[in-house]
Design a protein that fits this description.
alpha/beta, globular, 244 residues, Rossmann fold, seven-stranded mixed β-sheet
Length: 244
C-alpha cells in the first residue's frame, strides 16, 4: 500500500505506517528543518514543501493508496486561541482538496482531541461529500506502553462505498483502539524515558527545532498499530470481493 504523507513533520506517522508494512511514496512538509530529517531517513522518497500545491507537484504519478496527515492543530488545540477556521493556520481545506483531486481509496487524518469540538463536523462533512465512510477514535501513546498519555484523534476514511469489516468501532460506539489486548506488550518493549527540557540550552544547535519537531510528531507505535488495522481490513475486503 503506497502512502502520500501530508504535513509530514519529522515522519512519526510515516515511520509507523512503514513499520506496519506500507510504502512511503511521497512526503509534503513546509518546515526546512523537518525536511532535512525526512531526507536523512527517506532519501529515496520524493518531497514537496507545500500541501496547497501538492497535487500539481504529484503530477501523473500513480494514485496513492492512502493519503495521511495531521493538518496544523493550533487552531483547535486546548492550548491555543481555538479559532478553528478563523485561524490562518487552518489548512483543513487544503487537505480536503488533495483528497478530492487524488481520490485515494483510504485517507487517514490525525489531530488533537480538540478537533472533536472545533471542526470535526467540517472534516466529516468534507469526507462524506466526497463519498468516504469514516470511523474515528482517540488513541493514547500510553496504550502502547509509552510513559506519557499524548492522546490523539485518528479518523480513517474509506472510499470503497461500503464499510469494511474493521477491527475497531467508531469512538461514539466504544472504540477498541484504546484497549486492544497486548498493545503495551506488542509496542511498548523499547520505550526510553524522555529527558525533560530544562529551559534554554546553550551550545546545542537545532535544539529548538528538535523539540518542536518531536512535540508535533505522531508516536510511531500508535501509527503502526493503526496501519496494521488498515492493512488487515483491506485484506479482509479483498478476500470478500474474491469470494463474491
Amino acid at each position: 500500500m503506497n502512502v502520500l504523507s501530508l504535513f509530514s513533520g519529522i515522519g512519526g506517522l510515516d515511520l509507523g505506517l512503514q513499520r506496519a508494512g506500507m510504502t512511503i511514496a511521497g512526503q509534503v512538509e513546509i518546515d526546512p528543518w523537518c525536511r532535512k530529517v525526512l531526507a536523512k531517513h527517506w532519501p529515496e522518497v520524493p518531497r514537496h514543501d507545500d500541501v496547497r500545491t501538492c497535487v500539481q507537484w504529484w503530477g501523473d504519478r500513480p494514485r496513492p493508496d492512502l493519503v495521511c496527515g495531521g493538518f496544523p492543530c493550533q487552531p483547535v488545540s486546548e492550548a491555543g486561541y481555538q479559532q478553528a477556521q478563523d485561524d490562518p493556520r487552518w489548512l483543513r481545506p487544503a487537505f480536503a482538496d488533495v483528497i478530492r483531486r487524488l481520490r485515494p481509496p483510504i485517507a487517514l487524518v490525525e489531530n488533537v482531541p480538540g478537533l472533536l469540538d472545533r471542526g470535526m463536523g467540517a472534516v466529516l462533512g468534507d469526507l462524506a461529500a466526497l463519498g468516504y465512510d469514516t470511523e474515528w477514535s482517540i488513541l493514547s501513546a500510553c496504550a502502547m506502553g509509552a510513559p506519557h498519555a499524548r492522546e490523539r484523534l485518528f479518523i480513517v476514511a474509506d472510499a470503497s462505498g461500503e464499510r469494511r469489516q474493521r477491527r475497531w468501532q467508531p469512538a461514539h460506539q466504544g472504540s477498541s483502539l484504546m484497549a486492544g489486548e497486548g498493545l503495551r506488550d506488542r509496542y511498548g518493549r523499547h520505550w526510553a524515558t524522555e529527558p525533560r527540557p530544562n529551559g534554554v540550552a546553550y551550545g546545542l544547535p537545532g535544539r529548538v527545532d528538535r523539540l518542536r519537531g518531536i512535540g508535533n510528531a505522531v508516536v510511531p507505535q500508535v501509527a503502526e498499530h493503526i496501519g496494521r488495522l488498515i492493512l488487515a481490513a483491506d485484506g479482509n475486503a479483498a478476500d470478500r470481493g474474491r469470494a463474491a
